[in-house]
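ok trying again, last paste got cut off:
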Amino acid sequence: MIGTIVNASLVFLASIFGYFLGRKVGEEVRERIMKVLGLTIIFIGLKMAFETKNPVLIIASVVIGTVIGEVIKIEDGLETFAAKIEKKFSGFTFAEGFVTATILFCVGPMAVVGSIREGLTGDASIILAKTMLDTVSALFLSAVFGLGVALSSLSILVYQGTITLFAGSIASYLTEEVIAEVTASGGIIVMAIGFNVVGLSRFKAANMLPALVIAPLGVFVYSAL
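nice, full thing came through this time. structure:
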């Protein structure tokens, strides 16, 4: 679990540095950075979405997952949690930064495959490669959204740490097809974040997260038919 600890720690440190850097940057510059970040996030999500081998399954997974997320109000819960901490800070969109960074850092094949590999073999190379990408992203995200991005380090620790600890139990279920469809579903969610950051929409991206559970279930059902 060393890889995940390093991942979470560097994201936290980069977020703190980016936060103070962002305070020295004017509002207009932060706005331009946000637009560019949004475009890159959309590109990443699009690339992930094309991993699918079954587009119909992904459509169904995202729709059903979103319905579930809307009913149980996942995003509202995350924002409420972030708002309790946000009271200590001001000047930045804390809750939005937390939700955006959490989804961006945790939804993707490197987080899943890397955590399983470290749990089974002790090899943290994939997670450490992911750490480099996350650290750079955290630096720029926190310059725009503030310290909410730093809180996402806790999400990384819990999410990846859990997968690493239970890698032996779940590895046999995570076939290449399952990982591909989970990645594709995650790509749609990441694209929704990108559109939010650019300002073209206001998706409640966190409410789409159940799609990451529905997608593998769909693969298992489809395979059994």
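cool. The mean pLDDT is 85. Residues 27-49 form the longest helix (23 residues).
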